[in-house]
Amino acid sequence: MPHPQVLRDMALFVEVAKRRSFSQAALVLGMPVSSLSRRITVFETAIGLRLLDRTTRRLTLTTYGEAYFAQAMRLVDEAQQAYDDIMAEAKGPSGLLRIAVPSDLWVQQHLASIISDFANGNEHVRLQVGLGYGPVDLMEERYDLAIAVETPRETSLIVRKVVELENGVFGAPSYLEDWGRPMRPHDLTEHNVLVPGPPTNWAFTRGDQTGSVTVSGQIACNSPSLMRSFALAGHGLFSASLACVESDLANGVLEQVMTDWTLRPTPVYIVTTSRLLPAKVRSFIEFAVKRLTGSSEAEEMPRREAAR
């Protein structure tokens, strides 16, 4: 049976190896950098192998360190999951749950109620939600999971597809009265289109027909909620998921154009760094998936597909 200190040192080594940084690992672990460095040195001395190469600028794993890290991380994750499971049996999921959320308007609108309802049913879980406008480094930024509307490129991540959102092109009645209604993709070149930045390419399909057009406009904005506000004020057309503008369409403040042409749907993913998840993370994923799809399971994507 391993000595308890061996297991503790193994967990310390895994945290340092994950982050390739003593200072970042020490911050996560809540201990002084000097103490962490000393424990790792004692651990390397005890096993008689150097696991980390340290320089003033960088920290890398040795060949022995790489091999040990793969095994140690699995054991540490399994031990943490076993602890979380027994704690969850005693009092339910607990601890701080950090979730990264993209700027997509649909995700924000739906997740607000999902997170609120999850919090109401899990009093021992504290939630911290971070809004981002680009890819999130889960490990570097210490998030437990991310909601993503773009397929992550990092092949080591675990990616679960939850749902696909149907998209459309929308504008305010006042704008359409002044500028007219586009009927086909090429017509959009004569319109003000709200886009995130530089001219953007939109791809459409209609039956077996395809159409592609580069769109741009007077106002560029990387916030979907601001885009909607500009569209409501009559500044141009914008694309969004149908579910996102449901109430606007029902109230007549926005109208959909080119209804016979279909924009590529937007997939929504849940992303984690491991399949071995703490009870708080598993509980939230199951809760969110059930709310979004009516099912408790999400499709896990093959890694080569997730890397595209």
Automatic annotation (TrEMBL):
Q: Which PROSITE patterns match?
A: HTH_LYSR
The domain of life for this entry's organism is Bacteria
Keyword Transcription in record: yes
Q: Keyword set for this entry?
A: DNA-binding, Transcription, Transcription regulation
Pfam families found in the cross-reference section: HTH_1, LysR_substrate
Domain HTH lysR-type: start-end pairs: 7-62
The UniProt entry, under InterPro entries, shows: LysR-type_TF_proteobact-type, LysR_HTH_N, LysR_subst-bd, WH-like_DNA-bd_sf, WH_DNA-bd_sf
Q: Transmembrane ranges?
A: none
Q: Which family does it belong to?
A: Belongs to the LysR transcriptional regulatory family.
Q: What is this protein called?
A: HTH-type transcriptional regulator DmlR
